[in-house]
Amino acid sequence: MRKLILLLFAIMPAIAFGQGFQVNLHGQKQIGMGHTGTGLLQDGASVLFNPGALAMLPQNYVQAGMSPLLFKSDFNPSGTTDQFRTKNKIATPFTAYGVWGPKDARWKIGLGVYTPYGGLTDWGQDWAGKYSLESLNLKAIYFQPTLSYRVTDFLSLGAGFVYNHGTVDLTRAIPVSNSSGQDGQAELKGNGHGFGWNAGAFFKTNVGLTIGLDYRSQVNTTVKNGDAIFKVPSSLQSSFPQPNTFTTTLPLPSTSSIGLGYKPSNKWTLAVDVNFTKWDVYKTLGFDYAKNTPTLQDTYSPRNYKNGWSYRAGAEYKATDKIFVRGGGGYVTTAVNDGYVTPEAPDANRYYLTAGLGYKVTKNLDLDVSFEYEHLDARTQTNIESQLSGTFKTNVYIPGLSLAYHW
């Protein structure tokens, strides 16, 4: 029984750290161009991509967007022909940015509200991995006030404070049955917060090349008094004390980015970004439970993640004074080592393709749409804790829409 409980709480790390939950949907123009933006001047999304670029923006911005995300994963248990699939549920990552500064001033202030982590996964109650996961609803919302200053005509710097508020609701089956043969169930619910910062520098050259550097700090997010809810036969209730809570701290890793932008003509814009995410800070996760029993003890679960890279490229073509066509793609390396793949984040190396279209509704109003397709390499794994063994195959489909008003 003790092993059962350890496995129950050891799954929480994947919720926060699986690459599949690092959303990266932070602006429709940027998505359309393969998620490039560190070395570009495009719109208010520079609050996130590179705070140093804000002071170079020629206008002020208020904008908001949403990118509904459909995550589709299949699982084939080892040694069988069975196939289990996630249900069709749609997550709704969103962004909102504001940028303002007096005309001709060297400074601008900004505010970003965005969702860098999130996921909505539902495998149902009758699949092979139900003792690892039934459903997951995760939301992490970052709030980032920002200040940017133009040091010279070719260099600007910026930085922002980050406050993170996250919520999670996860359910899984427990291999104990009541008199009707129904499995027990555990639900983990909680919310937490953390603090960090985002800083960047932006350089212009006289040959049409722009260069951006950005660093987003590690954010240690603490969940206090999260609810651990158990539905078990009455004969086992003393081993699962109710009500019960838990406390844990999750280190969301830092990200370093460099980006280049280039305009070979007044119609074309080209961009590349390289991102390094320091996932190796996530080695062990511990849970401190308010109420312990001989069965339910505090747990310390190894994770031993590795650092990850992403490589991005994109282009924009100005078809007319009102219509902009975008395209791009990229490759992302997984942070999840062999033996740690879970159904919450069946992560693997992946590639993605993006497309976008921009339309100037009026002189001051932009409408932007985007679409992204992600394909994760098939990955056959046996989890070292749950012993769930099989092959995951995953694809992700993400349309998006935003409006931006600028003056």
UniProtKB/TrEMBL annotation:
<keyword id="KW-0472">Membrane</keyword>
<keyword id="KW-1134">Transmembrane beta strand</keyword>
<comment type="similarity">
    <text>Belongs to the OmpP1/FadL family.</text>
</comment>
<dbReference type="Pfam" id="PF03349">
    <property type="entry name" value="Toluene_X"/>
</dbReference>
<keyword id="KW-0732">Signal</keyword>
<keyword id="KW-0812">Transmembrane</keyword>
<keyword id="KW-0998">Cell outer membrane</keyword>
<protein>
    <submittedName>
        <fullName>Long-chain fatty acid transport protein</fullName>
    </submittedName>
</protein>
<dbReference type="InterPro" id="IPR005017">
    <property type="entry name" value="OMPP1/FadL/TodX"/>
</dbReference>
